[in-house]
Design goal:
- It contains eight helices and eleven strands.
- The protein has helices at residues 13-25, 36-45, 62-69, 86-94, 107-125, 163-173, 182-190, 198-213; strands spanning 5-9, 29-33, 50-53, 77-81, 99-102, 137-140, 143-146, 151-154, 157-159, 223-226, 230-233.
- Strand 8 (151-154) and strand 9 (157-159) form a beta hairpin.
Length: 240
């Protein structure tokens, strides 16, 4: 089987080298670019399976390169940047990035994310020829909810939820970005009229969900609290 090809794009040559060596150790073939223009040139002549893309670069920055790339290709793009402001993450994801990893990166997490996105791309996109998405699956970043089997996969691994936890997660994942007050979650999931005590009940279930689907439950990427209002599913990439 031919090794999958990953394009590493960063103006810091030491970072490009270290990531490339890490990927080679895992069996991937790597290509290197040091600005957005160079990355786009490589994409014109090479069949690339995934891109690790820095944001702040000379000539053409990562977000501008991403916009041009998305005009022609849907291959996975993971933003790799030291910029941690929420607006920069949102901009990258809105423009079509599939995920982001903050510098300094954790090597094990980087490899896990790369493998997960490549696995999903192979399964649901069929390489350069995209297949129709399964209507029974809701995909958001590293989460895949299968409504037919009533199971959830986190970075490709099945995670066991209780029936109530599954219903809450299904509600949030099928409405990414929408904020649900605890009372609304309770009435949707429990099918009962909410009273003053439901907020604590929902909060406990949300905590259990985070412990199962988040890499770091104390710094959740997916299930977010909107203080004073309720809970929402942060949107990553494309969701069904």
């Amino acid at each position: 089987m031919e090794a999958e090809k990953i394009l590493v794009v960063d103006d810091n040559k030491e970072i490009v080298y270290s990531i490339s060596e890490l990927l080679k150790y895992e069996g991937y073939e790597t290509l290197k670019a040091y600005d957005g223009m160079e990355a786009l040139d490589i994409m014109e002549r090479e069949n690339v399976d995934l891109i690790l893309l820095d944001v702040m670069m000379p000539r053409l920055n990562g977000l501008s390169a991403l916009m041009k790339l998305r005009e022609k290709s849907r291959i996975p793009v993971i933003i790799l940047s030291a910029k941690t402001e929420e607006s920069d993450k949102v901009s990258g994801l809105t423009l079509g990035a599939d995920d982001y990893i903050e510098k300094p990166y954790n090597p094990a997490e980087l490899i896990a994310r790369v493998k997960a996105h490549l696995r999903r791309y192979r399964a649901w996109s069929g390489g350069e020829t995209e297949k129709k998405k399964d209507p029974d699956q809701v995909v958001n970043g590293g989460l895949v909810l299968d409504k037919k089997q009533r199971v959830i996969f986190v970075e490709g691994e099945e995670v066991h939820l209780t029936a109530t936890e599954y219903k809450i997660l299904e509600l949030l994942m099928t409405h990414p970005g929408q904020v649900f007050p605890a009372e609304q979650i309770y009435e949707n999931v429990w099918q009962e009229t909410a009273d003053y005590a439901v907020e604590n009940t929902v909060m406990v279930h949300i905590r259990h969900i985070r412990e199962k689907v988040e890499i770091d439950a104390k710094k959740p990427r997916y299930v977010k609290v909107v203080w004073g209002i309720g809970y929402k599913m942060e949107k990553y990439g494309k969701s069904n």
